Amino acid sequence: MRNLIFVAFVEPVAEGQVFPRTDWPLHITLVRFDVRFDAGNAAGADVAERLAGLADVPVAAALGTPLTVGADAGFGRDGSVPVNLVAPNRALQQLHEQLVDLVPEVGGRILTPRHTLAGYRPHISHHGSKRLHRGDAVVLDRVALVDMAPGGDHAIRQVLRLWSLDAGG
Fold first, then answer.
1. CA distances in angstroms from 79 to 28, 105, 129, 146, listed in the order given
2. Percent of the chain whose pLDDT exceeds 90
3. Can you give the CATH number for the domain in which 19 is found?
4. Quick check: 147 pLDDT over 70?
C-alpha cells in the first residue's frame, strides 16, 4: 500500500518537489488515503497518473477560490497540534467531496473516514514559526497530489502532480 494525499498548498511549491516529512509547506489537507500498487508497477505511476487525470476537472473548477483563515484550534491527540481552521467555504467543501469520491475509483481506501464529508474540518497546521492568523486571506491556487513515502522513504514527501493558477490549472 502507498499513502497519497491531496492538499491545497498556501506556500509556493513545484511539481516534483521533495521535502522532509517534518517540514511541510503550509497546506490544507483535502483527503488522505492508501492505494494498492501492483507488484509490476512498484512506482505506482499508472495509478497516480489515472488519479491525477480524474482530479483535473474538480481541481480546475476550484482553483482561484478565495478562502479566509479562521480561529486557532488544537487537533490530534489531546489537541496538541496547533492549527488554524479555515472558514467554511462551499467550493472547498465541494472539492473535498469530489476528491473523496475519486479514491474508490483507483482502489483506494480512506483510513480516517470520520474526517471526511460532513466530518471534514479544513485547517492549516502550524509548522514551527510558520503559521497563518485569523482573518488572513488566501487563495486556493495550488492543489497537489503528494506521495507520503516516495520510493518507500517515509522521511520525505514528494509532489507528484501540481495544479496551479500560474500554470493555467
1. 18, 33, 18, 25
2. 79
3. 3.90.1140.10
4. yes
pLDDT in tens, 55-82: 999 999 999 999 999 999 999 888 889 9
Given this model, what pLDDT does residue 10 score?
96
Helix 45-62, helix 90-102: angle, nearest 10: 160
pTM, full prediction:
0.92
Supply the pLDDT for residue 47.
85
- Grid coordinates in use for 1? 500500500
Distance of alpha carbon 50 from alpha carbon 52, whole angstroms = 5
Domain ranges, residue 60: 2-164
Please report how many Cα atoms fall inside a 13 Å half-sphere around the Cα of residue 54, on the Cβ side.
17
From 110, 34, 120, select the one nearest 75 (Cα to Cα). Answer: 120
Looking at the structure of the chain, the number of domains it has is: 1
